[in-house]
Amino acid sequence: xxxxxxTQFDRPPRCERCDEPEVDCVCEPEPSPRVRPExxxxxxxxxxxxxxxxVTVIRxxxxxxxxxxxxxxxxxxxxxxxxxxxxxxxxxxxxxLDRVTDVLTQIGYxxx
Length: 112
Hints:
By secondary structure, the chain is of the alpha+beta class. The chain has 2 domains: 1-30, no CATH class; 37-111, Translation Initiation Factor Eif1. The protein has helices at 68-79, 97-107; strands at residues 41-48, 54-59, 83-86, 89-93, 110-111. It has a 5-stranded mixed β-sheet with strand order 3-4-2-1-5, covered by helices on one side. A hairpin with a 5-residue loop joins strand 1 and strand 2.
């Protein structure tokens, strides 16, 4: 005899949507709710890097609520510059404050 035999702890967990055991469930995972761009504020700044290089930094956009890689691709093509995703935000090589502001406002972000 098992310790939890016949109790709710003995039964395998079931899917809430199809009521199948979680091992056999074929339901699609629910997409995470994203925050609309109109409700987010992007903070822009220009910073100096080593050897006098400048980068445009975009902060304040949550990686969970945005597709940062797609946004970075749009910004890089519009600015015709390289860029990267950093833990503190997106970086675009060079001084592109005006172009980045235009792109973000067209998408719907508030810009500071």
